[in-house]
Design a protein that fits this description.
The protein is an alpha+beta fold and about 90 residues long. It is built from three helices and four strands.
Length: about 90
Amino acid sequence: MNAIITVVGSDKVGIIAQVSTLLSEHKINIADITQTILSGNFVMMMMVSLDGADISIDELRQILHGTSEKLHVEINVMAEKVFSSMNRI
């Protein structure tokens, strides 16, 4: 299963490193990633594969919630199918 992870907040050192390290620790592969800085705000979107992961998408949400609090950013996780359905014209 694929999921979309979004990260938004004030730019600071280590956001990508901490999020990608956490994903790696749980055998979650980053299939695609984009990031930019908009007026000092860090914005990242990742498509990840949970095939072979040792946690569920719900567990991933909980773990990333702790990371979001530590980094003072907003992190959201959504199944790719749900994301695609919400953004279909």
